[in-house]
Amino acid sequence: MTSLVLIFQIFICLSLGYFVAPHLSQTLKQFVFKILPYFSYILLVSVAFELTQALNHIQNPATILPPALLIAFTTSIGSFFICLLTYKLIDRQSIQGKISSHLFLNALKNIAKAFLALGVGILFGVLIKISGIQIAFNSWYLLLIFIFLIGVELAFTQFDRSWLSWKILMVPVAAFIGSGLASILNYILLSNNYNFNEVMALAQGYGWYSMSGILFTELHSAKLGGIALLTDLFREIFAILLMYCLGWRFPRSAISSAGATSMDVTLAMVKQSCGTHYVPHAMMSGLILSLLAPLLISLFLNLKF
């Protein structure tokens, strides 16, 4: 599926949930609000499971794990701090969330649950490998169900015109700049094995591993496709950890680190850690980066420098 088809499906499910919500019975509404918090952990289990499955199908994973981890870590951290610096300069009052002992304890509980969910997913993937069972797992439809439920909740959320402010655009812009600056450092460390345009292209997946892995394989090589797949899987996991650890304190920066995933997988974590009022930031940032990701990857791979 192309990026436009995937984005179209997301907005169809979101819109469907939004317009269906007023017609739901009170019992169904309560059920939706009750199960929504658990979806983030279900998605975490699926991400960890897909990571183990990806490692099983990649030749010589030991050779591509180091660059994938390096690029994922530096681009996630780069996006976070560039966004933090940007908002500190243009809107100092918006860079920090509310602080309370209750919120801090909830954040610690969420972090613990997130690690538990990741551990369950990895354990499940290892057990499946040992047993020799073949499972064709695709979490996309699980994501679409979650997006539908988010649409239902958004129907009962009050928004105003401030969500259309240009300041929201600083979140994806910071992700782009932070990833680009991180690529310069990455190239210095990886220049013996990779060209600058390849390193830059690997930084443009923004966590969208289902797209980047395929695109790199088609446009370049299976090896770079494997690195792209693992890079964006790790980037998604780093974003989730940043979301739970610091999202309550620096919501926009955490959303920026999430990249394209803030529109789907990590949207649950945005709602849980940053608050429902930051969902529009996540949707807009995820949409823009999802549209840019395949274009930027193609652009940098076709450049020779």
UniProtKB/TrEMBL annotation:
<keyword id="KW-0812">Transmembrane</keyword>
<feature type="transmembrane region" description="Helical">
    <location>
        <begin position="6"/>
        <end position="24"/>
    </location>
</feature>
<feature type="transmembrane region" description="Helical">
    <location>
        <begin position="69"/>
        <end position="90"/>
    </location>
</feature>
<dbReference type="GO" id="GO:0005886">
    <property type="term" value="C:plasma membrane"/>
</dbReference>
<protein>
    <recommendedName>
        <fullName>Lysine exporter LysO family protein</fullName>
    </recommendedName>
</protein>
<dbReference type="GO" id="GO:0015661">
    <property type="term" value="F:L-lysine efflux transmembrane transporter activity"/>
</dbReference>
<feature type="transmembrane region" description="Helical">
    <location>
        <begin position="31"/>
        <end position="49"/>
    </location>
</feature>
<feature type="transmembrane region" description="Helical">
    <location>
        <begin position="111"/>
        <end position="133"/>
    </location>
</feature>
<dbReference type="Pfam" id="PF03956">
    <property type="entry name" value="Lys_export"/>
</dbReference>
<dbReference type="InterPro" id="IPR005642">
    <property type="entry name" value="LysO"/>
</dbReference>
<feature type="transmembrane region" description="Helical">
    <location>
        <begin position="282"/>
        <end position="303"/>
    </location>
</feature>
<feature type="transmembrane region" description="Helical">
    <location>
        <begin position="168"/>
        <end position="190"/>
    </location>
</feature>
<keyword id="KW-1133">Transmembrane helix</keyword>
<feature type="transmembrane region" description="Helical">
    <location>
        <begin position="139"/>
        <end position="156"/>
    </location>
</feature>
<keyword id="KW-0472">Membrane</keyword>
